[in-house]
Amino acid sequence: MNSTKQSIPKNKRLLSLDVLRGITIAGMILVNNGGPVNFAPLEHSKWNGLSLADIVFPFFLFMVGISTYLSLRKYEFHWSVALIRKIVKRTLLIMLIGWGIYWFDACCKGDFLPFSHLRIPGVLQRIALCYGIVSVLAVSINHKWFPHIAVGLLVIYTLILIIGDGYACNGSNVLAIVDRAVFGSAHLYHKSPIDPEGLLGTIPSIAHTLFGFIAGEILMERTSLKEKMLRLLLYGFLLSGLGFLFQYGLPVNKRVWSPTFVLLTCGLASSLLACLIGIIDIKDKKCWTPFFESFGINPLFLYIFSELLASFFFNFHIKNILYGIILSAVPCKYIASLIYAILFVLLNWIVGYPLYKKKIYIKL
């Protein structure tokens, strides 16, 4: 059983949380659905470095940590049959949906039994593992140890990277070796030597989610909104500062989910959340938020829908047709790619907006 610092009252829902989730999901859909060429910020870094496209998934994982705190708080962080059922069900469901997306893509290609080469790691699989593990920790260990656990995981992962040549962009990288041994080459991501959601990368991803969990705890403390905002801003500056400091020995790298990548992106996410609290929840400037709220109240559902729709469009050549139409009107390939990606985001918004207006929450 876990003990917390204080009894936390039921605070009203912070609109800034939904907006940040929405910005993140809209961003994930945008960067995943461009054309053949894209402006540099919308492309993932080839190896070391950080682009705008690189921060959307880590931002979402940070938000998973916050959501985990808010969800388990309802159970007062005590084990119960209902809580065990909830954690197990949600973990398995998200993981199965992740595999289902790959299966759907294979079916669209005419391969209805792709199990010999179906990719096992993935974005949703990583989210599922991090949610499940952090949930178990949250009801088993006193939360005051979470910063120490997160730092400890990053230190362990740093040693793995150093000893195992973890920054090598080839098959000799320990991350690639472990993934091949556990999953088999046929079940991995093939567009780079390193699977970006591989097994060992789950270690820093758990730390990442724990940092989000700590941010959730800050949000629910008995303090004013201004104090929450300032604490999150300080928290963000601390994490980002550490990320910048250690990048000289440990480059920021999304594909290996490097410790500096964790620190920097968690810091940026916390800082952005603090800014959104100031703008939306304190200054009450909300006229621009409904678009992102539409994505933020059903984030996983809309992400899954976008992945299925993107697979359908690609495999049945709808994407090529639409992109060709845009390109015929806008000769610049980069601008045409951006327009297609924006239109694809808007198409998903058309699905999410009625759910938002009718306050329909699709929980996974």
Instruction: Specify the oligomeric state.
Output: single chain
- Give the averaged pLDDT, no decimals: 94
| Biggest sheet overview | none
Fraction of residues in helices? Answer: 55-70%
- Total strand segments: 0
Overall description:
It is a single chain. The protein is 64% helix and 0% strand. The chain is mainly alpha-helical and 364 residues long.
At a glance:
This protein has 364 residues and is mainly alpha-helical. It is built from 13 helices and no strands. Helix 2 crosses helix 7 and helix 4 crosses helix 7.
What attributes does this structure have?
0% strand, 364 residues, 13 helices, globular, 64% helix, mainly alpha
Give the helices and strands, then pairings.
Blueprint: H1 15-32, H2 56-73, H3 81-108, H4 123-138, H5 146-163, H6 174-182, H7 202-219, H8 225-246, H9 259-282, H10 290-296, H11 299-315, H12 318-329, H13 333-357
Helix pairs in contact: 1-2, 1-9, 1-10, 1-11, 1-13, 2-4, 2-7, 2-9, 3-4, 3-11, 4-7, 5-7, 7-9, 8-9, 10-13, 12-13
